[in-house]
Design goal:
53% of the residues lie in helices and 0% in strands. With 99 residues, the chain is an all-alpha fold. Helix 1 (22-34) packs across helix 2 (39-57).
Length: 99
C-alpha cells in the first residue's frame, strides 16, 4: 500500500542506522501499521516532527534596538486589571489542580 508523506518527496541518498531492543521495535511496527505506513516512513516522520519542535523551542528571536526597547518597556510597565478580569478572579474556580 502506498502512503504519501511529505518526507517521501525527495531523493534519499543518506542512510540512518540505529540499534533497538525487540520490544521497542515491535511497538514502532505496531504504530506504523496503525498509521498505514512502513516502519521507515513512520520513524522518519515522527523523528522529524520532534526535531522541528525541539529546534522551534530554541529559536533565537532577534529584535532591532527599537523593538527590543519597546519590548523591555512593555515588560517593565505594571499590568492593568480591568473590571472583567477582576470579576473573573473573584469567581470561585470550576477546577482543581491535580498533582
Amino acid at each position: 500500500m502506498y502512503c504519501h508523506s511529505e518526507y517521501m518527496s525527495t531523493l534519499k541518498e543518506q542512510r540512518l542506522q540505529i540499534r533497538i531492543d525487540p520490544q521497542r521495535k515491535q511497538l514502532l511496527e505496531r504504530a506504523a501499521d496503525a498509521a498505514h505506513q512502513n516502519l521507515s516512513t513512520f520513524v522518519l516522520g515522527a523523528a522529524s516532527r520532534h526535531a522541528e519542535e525541539v529546534l522551534a523551542e530554541r529559536t533565537v528571536v532577534e529584535l532591532s534596538p527599537q523593538a527590543a526597547q519597546a519590548f523591555s518597556d512593555a515588560l517593565a510597565q505594571p499590568a492593568r486589571v480591568n473590571e472583567r478580569l477582576a470579576a473573573a478572579l473573584d469567581r470561585p474556580r470550576q477546577f482543581r489542580w491535580v498533582d
